[in-house]
Each structure stands twice: as C-alpha cells, then as structure tokens.
Amino acid sequence: MPHSTSPVTSPAASSEHLPSSTKKSITGTTKYTSGQGDNVEMNPTRENDLEFEIVVGHYNEDLSWLKQHRNECCIYSKGGSKNAPVLPFTFTPLPNIGREGHTFLYHIVNKYDTLADVTLLVQGRIDDHVDLTVDEMKERAMATVPGQVTTYPFRELELFDHWEGIPWEQYPCWKRWSSMDCKKMPDTPLELFQKYISQSDRVPVAVGFAPGAIFAVRKETIRQHSKDFWQRLLDKMFLGEMAHVNPETGHYMERFWLALLNPNEYVQWDASDVAKTKRNKHGQLAKGQWYRTPTGAEIDLGAIRRGEVLDSPLSASTTSPDMPSSPETALSSLADEETIAEKPIGQ
C-alpha cells in the first residue's frame, strides 16, 4: 500500500520555504514533472498502520538499489525537476536546504502522528557508508527495540567533542565539505546541544555518532520528544537564517542524532563515563570507545566495522550487486572523487 502523505501545511512545511515550481505540489496531491519527462506523483496518503518505512533524502542519486522496496519508501527529493526520481518512484519535492538533517526532521514533524513502527533513515547513496543489502538493513531495523538506535556497518561510530565549533582547518580530510560555501551558525555546538538536545547546562565530554546519519529507530523512541520539540529543532537548525544549502547546523545535526534519541548510550558526560567493554550489546563501539578522526590527515577512511554485530546472524561483509565489493572499495572511490567539492548538497 502507499506509505506517505503529502506534507501537512505547518511552519516547517509552509510553501514560503519552497521554490515557486514546487509550491503547488507541496500542499496537494498533484503530479510533479521530472527532468526525464515522467509525471511522478507526490508521496500519496497513508494510514497509521505501517510496520516499516524507508525515509530517503535524495538529490540526484540513482535509486535503483531501492527499486524492490519502492512501496516502502518515502522519498524527499531536493534536486528539482531536472534531478527528480523517475517512475516507478513517487516522491515529495523539497527545497535544497539543510542536508539530510532537514529532510529527516521535516519527515518527523509532518508524519509525527502516522510514523511507521520502524523508520529507516537513509541518504540517496549509502554504499560509501554501508555494505549491506536493503533486505539485510530491513531485517536489522525490524529487530530494533524502543530506545535503541540501529546503525549499520561498515563504518564505526565516531566521536564528536568540538563544542566550540568544528576547526575545519585542522582536518584536511574534511575539505570536501569545508571548501563548499557554508552558512555559519552563530551558536556554538555546545549552546545548541544544551538548549535543544540535552536541555540542561551540563557540558558533555563527547557524543558518539553514525557517519552519514544512516540509522533505524522505532516510533516510540522518536515520540519520547513531543512534536513541538521536533518543530523547534527544525526551526532552529534549518529554517529562518539557517535555510541554506550547506548550513553548519547540518554537520552538527549529523553528530547529534544518536545523543538525542538515546543519551544514556551515546553521551559521555565525564572522563570516567566510559564503557568497560569495547562494544555495546548491539555491536556498536560502546560509550567512550568511539573512533576519533585524526587531525592533519589528508585522507581518513574512518574505522571499518567487520562482522562484529553481536545481535544479528547476518555478516557485515555481505554484499549485493548494488553494493561495493568491500568497504575499502567504496571508501577509496569516495576519496577519489575529484569534483566532490563542486557538487550540490543533495540531502
């Protein structure tokens, strides 16, 4: 059955934030013309009975890897008519702002009352972060319990502790992002974290995050926060003065998702707050054991997680024709993309 609805008109979904070519579509069920000449319908109306849904932040990526799961997808495309998904995919057009963080928050706010039991959030391309098939990702997602955030190999969880701001110049390996036009956030990451994430004055040592913000979560975990909470977060991070193709808040939100959804597991509050084991019960690097990106490195491929997921019989090395033959292959191809800094921000 269809799995998503045309966005509800709200401060987050208001047509004033959309390009003129999409203002009619965003509040109705009209068709939207893709660059290939196909008429692609908006994500159609759905009831509150979904067990599983894949939320896709799309710009111009090839979505053929999702074709067999298209009826489980809620696709938000930010590439305009030229880059829009073609049939059989349906999608909702959004303005190209806020990276994947805006897309995911937009979905949570506008589908809050009809969230699927389990939501898998992905970008239009995932093979530079994940080496599982969609079926395997779904199987792990459906095993998610309330309070858990399921992440996927091959990338390990990483550490964030730059509470006064990301010192981009110290990380040449991040130049693909820092070389783009970036809208700076007046607030520091710590100020944002205290006011909108932890809602306390405590200063954490670090938080753990999933590179690429690819994860699965149950609706109960999302609904531990009110709809108004998610709306305020969306407004602060990605609307108003931060409604930009590459806002600094997009990079912060990527690092805050896990801490927001399960602070007990992903926030290290002091130096002694470190897990005694390397991995938690879900196979992720445990609290305080997260990978730290080295300064000064021209290329950092991160830490690769190799089949160490403890709560699933699936092998992290499993691939499909749509996936790279190995994590190293995907990461090497990513590092070799010479024009990446000139590409639009897709999600």
Give a short overview.
Helices cover 24% and strands 12% of the residues. With 347 residues, it is of the alpha/beta class. It has a 6-stranded mixed β-sheet with strand order 5-4-3-6-10-7, with helices on both faces.
What can you tell me about this protein's structure?
This protein is of the alpha/beta class and 347 residues long. Helices cover 24% and strands 12% of the residues. It has 11 helices and 11 strands. Strands 5-4-3-6-10-7 form a 6-stranded mixed sheet, with helices on both faces. A 3-stranded antiparallel sheet has the order 8-9-11. Helix 2 links the parallel strand 4 and strand 5.
Which term fits the overall shape? globular
Q: Reading side by side through the largest sheet, how are the strands ordered?
A: 5-4-3-6-10-7
Cα distance spanning the termini: 26 Å
Q: Number of helix segments?
A: 11
Major sheet characteristics = 6 strands, mixed
Specify Rg, calculated over alpha carbons.
19 Å
Which class do the helix and strand fractions yield? alpha/beta
Find the count of extended strands (DSSP E, 2+ residues): 11
Q: Which residue ranges are poorly predicted, with pLDDT under 50 across at least 5 consecutive positions?
A: 1-41, 307-347
Q: What's the order of the H and E elements? A: HEEEEHEHEHEEHHEEHHHHEH
Helical content band:
10-25%
Q: What's the rounded overall pLDDT mean?
A: 80
Instruction: Estimate what percentage of residues fall within beta strands.
Output: 5-15%
